Amino acid sequence: MIKGKVENIKDKIDGNELDLSLSNLTEVPVKELAAFPKATVLDLSCNNLTTLTPEFFSLTHLIKIDLSKNQLVCLPEEIGQLGNLQHLDLYNNKLKMLPIGFSQLKSLKWLDLKDNPLEPTLAKAAGDCLDEKQCKQCASRVLQHMKVLQEEAEKEREHRLLKERELEKKKEAKQREKEAREKEAQKKKKAEEKERKRKEYQAQMATSASQEQQKKKKEKKKKAAQNQGTVLSDMN
């Protein structure tokens, strides 16, 4: 059998159960599984799965999934899409933590996380999972634990967004101040330029007036001299 491929899936269905255990799988044949929505119980135990693709969680018809004895190191956030999932066996994998999306598994009633290197707070919430009662308690406690983490993550996200908005406001305020300063500087520059031109104009006018006055004086003197010359000529 080719790793990651299963032949004749239909032959592995018994009622509503699909048994793909011990199939040497390295990935789940999601497309093939989607063709059998009546198979609500899926056994993927004892394979070589290290992760699940986001597409796997489009199989929302699943009620029970056995993923025990694989090599799973993480689960995608999309796991929360499995709204009908009631029973999830993750025994003997390599999970350290669960995604926040796990808190969305509102129908989950049974969970086994035994023999996983869980981080301490999650391990405490999961408990021992040694029997049916403890696995039911595990589902309830882990969901509650993940909801708390989700709330904390949401608060952190809101705090981060608030901080980002405050920084953006400060940035905008600084930009407005900068623009106001530039506008004021430009206004001052224009006023100074206008004052310079006004003074130049006044200086030009003063020079022109002075020149005109001197010209008139010269003309007056010239005319006076001419008049005096005429008088002397008449006297002779």
Describe the structure concisely.
This protein has 236 residues and is α/β, with parallel strands linked by helices.
Give structural notes.
The protein is of the alpha/beta class and 236 residues long. Helix content is 49%, strand content 7%. The protein has a domain at 9-152: Ribonuclease Inhibitor (Leucine-rich repeat, LRR (right-handed beta-alpha superhelix), Alpha-Beta Horseshoe). It contains three helices and six strands, in the order ββαββββαα. A hairpin with a 2-residue loop joins strand 1 and strand 2 (17-19). The radius of gyration is 45 Å and the shape is rod-shaped. Its main location: endoplasmic reticulum. Residues 215-224 have a biased composition (Basic residues). Keywords: Coiled coil, Endoplasmic reticulum, Leucine-rich repeat, Membrane, Microsome, Nucleus, Repeat, Signal-anchor, Transmembrane, Transmembrane helix. Residues 166-201 have a biased composition (Basic and acidic residues).
